[in-house]
Amino acid sequence: MVSTDMTSLAQYDEEQVRLMGERCILVDRDDKPIGYETKKNCHLMTNISQGLLHRAFSVFLFNNKGELLLQQRSDEKITFPNCFTNTCCSHPLNDPLEIVEKDALGVRQAAQRKLGHELGIPKDELPLDQFQYLTRIQYLAPSDETWGEHEIDYILFFQTGNKDVTLNVNVNEVQHARYVSKAELQQLVADAKDGKCLITPWFRLICEKFLFQWWDHLADLSSHVDHDTIHRL
């Protein structure tokens, strides 16, 4: 049963509290939708410990040099503040545009929306057919004693053409964004292991298990597409 306890949000940023009212898509272990719940309730560890699971996505946006757009989450974020992570990570919402299952269209439309919200990338620079859905992962990670994540996460790659996307960073969401090479990200991951910086748990898992292999095949990722498997990490 979903807990709707009175965990206070009074100490958090007003805009981040507002976003906690968004309705995330609840799924079972096979990623079948079973309803919806608020973002707040989906991220309470009291609910996660009872198995509450929701749908998410992680975007990896590469420029024409093969560099990944990395972000550092704002210190206003309620979960995983100040952590480095992939280009954009969020949730499709219980909205007619974002619940579409066919070809992961709902997830791709959610990704387009959030790239605009977090990084200010104009919609016309993010054609839906350029989002490549590779696979899904399931993971569970606490942010602190109160908040955490338990998601089935769709992995989306987006590769720009000859012109980089336009960035107009929303500082309430993202404190810093920059492109990194594969070697630079490998150093960041090593620094995180040494406690020199923070990275989000899903990003760490994806880096350790998949990302650097995928990075070597940006020209043709077809052999890495796996829509049947949900990798339990």
From TrEMBL:
EC number: 5.3.3.2
Domain Nudix hydrolase, residue spans: 52-205
Cofactor: Mg(2+)
Transmembrane region(s): none
Assigned keywords, A-Z: Isomerase, Isoprene biosynthesis, Lipid biosynthesis, Lipid metabolism, Magnesium, Metal-binding, Steroid biosynthesis
Gene3D superfamilies: Nucleoside Triphosphate Pyrophosphohydrolase
GO MF annotation terms: isopentenyl-diphosphate delta-isomerase activity; metal ion binding
GO biological process: isopentenyl diphosphate biosynthetic process; steroid biosynthetic process
Pfam (any one): NUDIX
Any GO CC annotation of this UniProt entry: cytoplasm
Reactions accelerated catalytically: isopentenyl diphosphate = dimethylallyl diphosphate
Record SUPFAM superfamilies: Nudix (SSF55811)
CDD domains: NUDIX_IPP_Isomerase
Pathway, per record: Isoprenoid biosynthesis; dimethylallyl diphosphate biosynthesis; dimethylallyl diphosphate from isopentenyl diphosphate: step 1/1
Family designation: Belongs to the IPP isomerase type 1 family.
NCBIfam families in the cross-refs: IPP_isom_1
Name under which the protein is recorded: isopentenyl-diphosphate Delta-isomerase
